[in-house]
Design goal:
Layout lengths: L11 E6 H12 L10 H9 L4 E5 L2 E3 L1 H9 L1 H10 L15 E6 L6 H13 L3 E6 L3 E3 L4 H4 L6 E2 L1 H6 L4 E6 L2 E6 L12 E3 L5 H14 L5 E4 L7 H8 L15 H8 L4 E4 L6 H6 L4 E3 L1 H8 L3 H7 L4 H4 L2 E3 L9 H18 L4 E5 L24 H14 L3 H4 L1 E5 L2 E2 L8 E8 L2 E8 L5 E5 L9 E7 L5 E5 H5 L3 E5 L4 E11 L2
Parallel strand pairs: 1-2, 1-15, 2-5, 5-11, 11-12, 12-13, 13-14, 14-15
Antiparallel strand pairs: 3-4, 6-10, 7-9, 8-9, 16-18, 17-20, 18-19, 19-24, 20-23, 21-22, 21-24
């Protein structure tokens, strides 16, 4: 199947927790629902909201061993019961990031059903994104029996130093000690096995997986992509890579695969200031965790400074305020602050990620090992806000216009540093986005000297409330407009030329 759609610049991505979504649909229908049963109207609805890509998260076959670990681990069971009291064994699926095979999980549907969904999306000029988990596999992946050399191995002495970081594997008449996958800043993921990216055979095998996956999607979201960068892998596992046949490779894995599959959209989950490096290796979009953290921590000045980065860098960032790893945004920011935060990230350049349940104001974070939480009603205020916001930012100016951060100058009240403003421009039309990220009212002056014709009059309309204002280009340019925003207020102002001034 060839790629049949043309994505917009600065696209919107909608992430769906596939197992939880199908369980939700099954409860609504009163019968089991799989990928084959999703009506075309579902894709029409998401298209109307302005989504360009649908990420069906967690479609691959989960490790049965991962599920057994989840069932047996008391701390995990306690965490599950926090969000789902009286959690039953059938509610626990195991982690969708501990994969035993890159085949559609039988409980979700078939590859044919997935291909049909992709056709439906492409027909609407939308794309399908799937997961690729490069760093590790599940503990019951066939490679552990057939190709243990694909994994990081240590000696028995190292195993006994830290048995939680490794697991024994009986192979013929010997015992091998295999490392669990890990982020070096956190405890090992004990339901995974760590792949050895300094073994060329491992890389070839992963490339073969990508050959298998690529015909069925339009892009891949790559889990913890920075972990397989040569320098990070060397720092994390170089001491364990004692086989002289496996020296650090000259080429990066990501430059190999992005060049080999240029038709795919490559999305990296990445941290630790690796974003620029991954962009240079061929990733189309890389997570912008730094923006999320600064918004969450209330570091408003740092938000502004972050947005001063070059547009070539920013347009390849994935903006988000929640996803399956983070807490629900409404629970993090609260009902008032969520509005300017959502307006800010939704209107920025780059890819914008919206998570299943975010637009309905869900607040309970669902662990990826579970299929549902306790019941939670839709927050109609938040849902209505997102409907209005998405209708605004779905306009072409936010996707094909020119973006620029605006300087906010102090006016006759304090707090201008809490006011973030930026402008989209397409032809003669302007769209000004302003958000106050503080509880207190603030004001600031914004000049449009580089954006308007001083001989033309302009109409200014607030997209949220429709209030019009007429102003000359000369006044917009010098000295500009003093704007006042209440605490946690957001405003999006459409600015259009009307007629020449006298």
């Amino acid at each position: 199947m060839n790629n049949k759609f043309i994505p917009r610049p600065h696209p919107n991505l909608y992430e769906i927790n596939t197992a939880a979504w199908l369980f939700e649909k099954s409860r609504e229908a009163g019968r089991p629902v799989t990928l084959a049963d999703i009506p075309a109207g579902e894709w029409d609805r998401l298209k109307a909201l302005g989504m360009d890509y649908i990420w069906l998260m967690g479609v691959w076959t989960r490790s049965a061993v991962s599920r057994q670990i989840c069932l047996a681990e008391p701390d995990l069971r306690n965490a599950f019961e926090d969000v789902l009291p009286a959690c039953q064994p059938e509610d626990i699926l195991g982690s969708c990031y501990s994969v035993s095979a890159y085949e559609i999980d039988p409980s979700l549907g078939t590859l044919d059903a997935l291909d049909n969904i992709r056709r439906e999306l492409n027909r609407r000029n939308m794309g399908l994104i799937l997961d690729f988990i490069p760093n590790h596999t599940g503990l019951d992946h066939r490679w552990l029996e057939e190709h243990p050399e694909y994994y990081i191995q240590v000696d028995e002495a190292e195993y006994h130093k830290n048995p939680s970081a490794y697991f024994p594997l009986r192979q013929d008449n010997r015992i091998l000690y295999i490392a669990h996958g890990r982020d070096p800043f956190f405890p090992p993921w004990t339901d995974t096995a760590q792949l050895n990216y300094f073994n060329p055979a491992t890389r070839r095998a992963m490339l073969e997986y990508l050959e298998q996956i690529a015909p069925h999607c339009d892009g891949l979201r790559c889990d913890m992509a920075m972990l397989v960068l040569n320098n990070i892998f060397l720092k994390t596992w170089g001491w364990a890579n004692k086989n002289p046949a496996f020296p650090p490779p000259a080429q990066e894995f990501w430059s190999q695969v992005t060049a080999r599959f240029p038709h795919l959209v490559w999305i990296a989950e990445a941290y630790w200031d690796t974003e620029w490096q991954l962009q240079q290796l061929g990733f189309d979009y890389v997570y912008d965790k730094r923006l999320y953290d600064r918004l969450k921590e209330g570091k408003n000045r740092e938000v502004y400074l972050h947005l001063k980065a070059d547009i070539e860098y920013q347009q390849k960032l994935v903006r988000f305020i929640e996803n399956h790893d983070e807490m629900r945004s409404l629970a993090v920011f609260g009902k008032e602050k969520i509005k300017p935060v959502a307006a800010l990230f939704s209107a920025l350049p780059g890819m914008k990620l919206f998570f299943h349940g975010q637009l309905e104001g869900k607040q309970i974070h669902l662990p990826v090992q579970l299929r549902h939480t306790r019941p939670e009603p839709v927050d109609e205020e938040i849902q209505n806000f997102y409907r209005r916001l998405l209708a605004i930012v779905n306009q072409e100016i936010f996707h094909r216009g020119e973006w620029r951060l605006k300087e906010v100058y102090p006016a006759d009240c304090p707090g201008a540093e809490n006011l973030i403003a930026f402008l989209w421009k397409k032809d003669m039309k302007l769209m000004l986005v302003m958000v106050n990220l503080h509880t207190e009212a603030t004001c600031g002056r914004i000049s449009f000297a580089d954006d308007v014709d001083e001989l033309i009059s302009y109409s200014l309309v607030d997209e949220f409330n429709g209030e019009p204002l007429e102003m000359s280009g000369k006044l917009l340019a010098h000295p500009g407009i003093n704007w006042q925003l209440n605490g946690y207020q957001s405003r999006i102002i459409e600015i259009n030329p009307t007629e020449r001034s006298e």
